Amino acid sequence: MRLILLPGVVIIVVVVTAILLGRTRRGPFTADQTTGSVRRVFWYGLLAAVMVMAAIGVAGLITAAIPTDLLVGDGGRDLARSLALVVVAGPTALLLWTAQLRRLRGSANERSSIGWALYLPVMVTVALITVVVSAIETSIWLAGTGDPAPEAVGRTVAWGALWWWHRRVSAAAELSPRRGPCATVAWESTVGLVTLALGLGGTLAILLDRAYQSLFGTTLVAEEPTGWLAAAVVGLAVWTIAWLFDANRRSPTPGLQTHILITGVLGGLVTSVAAAGTLLFLVAEWLLGTPETLDPVQQFAETPGLVSAVVIGAALWGYHRSVGRPAAGAAYRYLAAGIGLGAAATGLALVVAAAIGGLVPPLAGSQTSTDVLLGGLTALVVGVPVWWGHWQMSVRAAAAFPEAEARSTARRIYLIAVLGIAGVAGLVTAVILAFRILEAALGGRSLSESIEVVAGATGTLTAAGLLAWYHLGVWRSDRRLAPDLPERVVMVVAGPAGVALAARLRSDLDAKVEVIGRAQMGEETWDLDKAMAAVANADSTRVMVVASSDGFEVIPLE
Amino acid sequence: MVVVAIVGLAVVAVALRRTAPALDPATPEGAVQAYLAAAADGDEVAAAELVLGKPDLYCDQTGFAAHLIGSEVSGDTATVEVRLTYTGDGPFDGGGYGSDQRFRLQRIGDGWLIEAPELAPCWAEVP
To answer: What is the pLDDT of residues A133-192, one digit of tens each?
Structure first.
């Protein structure tokens, strides 16, 4: 297990966190914003660089202090590098860190800056992944089943300290970033959960594999579950610290909901559905199709791994469904329905393709249309219940609260995504199909020669068309129920009470709100409900609310 | 606190700076150690003396450390497993990359000689 994936992880953490941060509103505009952003790019870049260098240096020193069976060389060069990094980057890191803490305590701008909001989750995630991988390597070594890994011990301790230090800062009430306060703990939970799921899945797969082999009397290479077991233990520890004792006790923010939905629900459901579909296909292929092998033990050799994936995926899904549903009801329903719909649509496309392919007997090749048909049917069998169950929940929700459901962002995103994907798929396959038909008509290859392509394209076109037809109807009826409201833009100039007004405007009127804090504001006595009513009944959808100590004024804007 | 801990760690690391103990060259591990030491010095002739058949050796990688992972003797043959860690020249050239190497040896007279083709970090041209 190596850390070569870290650069990719850094990019993912930055992009996803930045997207979620973009959803949170900015604080008041200040004059030093431009120079401030340039300064922060360098400041946080430098801070991250010295932290990483110091951690590498300390890890090297710890590694050097662990005795090993040295044959040749004296490690002098490694020691020199570690010392150089510690001597130069260590004090610099402490110096910059002290300045950073002073700045955070002194200025509200720094805490609401995007630099701080990105630095913490990136640093914590990188450190945590390094700790997790190194701790697993260390455990394998200490369990006596792997090669000596003194450098893994050094990395575990040094990066572990860096992780713990940053996580305490991100949890401190007076230092944590104002934008995306839960981003750090959401990423930690994701790292812990993925490690735990992989570890448990791997261990379970090996245990089931042993049972399978002893049952059917084949002994292939017996893999030791030590590594997977170590991953499960390390993952459980991280997940317990980050999720059970921390994130799970916070009120759900967009960052935490993204973790619940993407890692828990999407990850678990996709794993389960894909593995269950494969399992079902193996059975169907054995009973009705043309399997590649005549040995049943070989045909079902993947069963332990697939069963383990179904179990672990279902556990992830089940747990996060119960956690995530109250907070993210609509998002959960439509995400799960989308996963089921994807599998069902693939199944439908394959069934149609098999039906058309079966019209012309193949000249050669082992993949008969029976196998394609079985693949399509199994995808339908696992996909349709998942889609139907979750779609029915939304149908019931739409019956109970028609307008609210039709306006739900999750529903709109779901419909747009389904229509978009169906549209693109339909367009591409229509071109392919038209090309083949015209080619045959103009005297080129006959249609039966390219029957596989024609059958596949027709299947996809049918599925895409059916999806588009059904969801276009839903989209149209939604639009009739809840036509687009004109976008409301409100600028609030007020004292501290302006923030409360902004929150009401956003939630009740779905308005875009900009708040500008008013200096030298006395006690605010104006009524929030009256202000809401005045904005809602204003002549223009673009208004400015200016509050003073004795009242407020609503000014229509162009 | 942190500063004291890190300074203490640095002192311990420097104090514990290891030198490889000289193994008995009449053992398989000793033969491998002598071979790797010659390779680390770039002494191709001395290294070739420890290889069965004394082939023409090329040893151009000298910046490495070697750790013993394990060894096994059965009769007149032995295997010695070693991890070679190559270290970059500058401070930013990375913390080195490792590769595991399994030497096979034969007992010749009182000592042991390494068998081709596993000769890293050196290599021999195939005759």
So the answer is: 999 999 998 888 777 788 899 999 999 999 999 999 888 888 888 887 888 999 999 999
Burial class of A434 by CB neighbour count within 10 A (0 to 12, 13 to 18, 19+):
exposed
Distance CA B37, CA A72 (A): 6
Q: What is the pTM of this model?
A: 0.80
| CB-based contact A524:A495 (threshold 8 Å) | yes
Tokens of A153: 């011990």
Burial of A27 (0-12, 13-18, 19+ CB in 10 A): middle
Taking the Cβ of residue B126 and every Cβ of chain A, the question of whether any pair is shorter than 8 Å is answered with no
Q: Are A119 and A76 in contact (CB under 8 A)?
A: no
Nearest CA to A437 out of A463, A466, A422, A458 is that of: A458
pLDDT digits (tens, 9 = 90+) for B23-68: 888 888 888 888 888 888 888 888 888 888 888 888 887 778 888 8
H or E element in which residue A487 lies: none
Q: How many CB atoms lie within 10 A of CB A204?
A: 20
Q: Considering only CB atoms, which chain A residues are within 8 Å of B17?
A: 64, 74-76, 79
In the three-class reduction of DSSP (H, G, I as helix; E, B as strand; rest coil), residue B101 is classed as: strand
A192 reaches B (C-beta below 8 A): no
How far apart CA A268 and CA A398 sit, in angstroms, is 27
Burial (Cβ within 10 Å: 0-12, 13-18, ≥19) of residue A295: exposed
Nearest in space to A277 (alpha carbons), one of A164, A386, A131, A182: A386
Question: Is residue B107 within 8 angstroms of chain A, CB to CB?
Answer: no
Nearest Cα neighbor of A197 from A248, A284, A137, A265 is A265
CA dist A159 → A94, A156, A171, A476 (Å): 16, 6, 18, 54
